[in-house]
Amino acid sequence: MYEIELEEEPIELCNLLKLMGLADTGGQAKLFISEGYVHLNGELCTQKRKKIYAGDQFSFNDEEFVVSLAEGVVPAERAQATPMPHTASQTAQTAPKQNKPAKTSRADKSRDKKTGRKPISFG
Questions:
Q1: Within 13 Å, how many C-alpha atoms sit on residue 35's CB side?
Q2: pLDDT higher than threshold 70 for residue 47
């Protein structure tokens, strides 16, 4: 098992594969992930931009890796998966806006009413 020390966290899985030299390009790293070549914490991971933190373990090409933080680096807090409850002030801010009629331009007037296409002239 290889240990990888991060100097800042989180790091996206595709970027980690590229930085480690396991993939030549970011596109190749994303392809490896989407094709199912990467396991994260014992489970198949197909999320290309999955956030990797210290303590995570992943495997690629029959090699095992564990992620840790370099000495002196402060660990980042992981994002909570549970939704936050709405408060009254949040509800007022997210009230639906009134729909205004769309402005029509001159280009819209020359369109066919049935198809919505502009007429084409060849001459």
A1: 9
A2: yes
DSSP 24: S
75-96 residues labelled b (16+ CB within 10 A) or e (exposed): eeeeeeeeeeeeeeeeeeeeee
Predicted model pTM: 0.59
Task: Work out the number of other CB atoms within 10 angstroms of the CB of residue 27.
Answer: 11
CA dist., res. 70 & res. 4, Å (int): 9
Question: What are the two backbone dihedrals, phi and then psi, of residue 14, each rounded to the nearest 5 degrees?
Answer: -65, -40
Please name the helix (run of DSSP H) or strand (run of DSSP E) that holds residue 43, with its range, or none: strand 43-44
User: Which tens digits make up the pLDDT trace of 60-86?
Assistant: 988 999 998 888 767 777 665 555 555
Which residues contact residue 74 at a Cβ distance below 8 angstroms, ignoring those fewer than 6 apart?
none
Please choose, from the candidates 4, 7, 3, 2, the residue with its C-alpha nearest in 3D space to the C-alpha of residue 75: 7
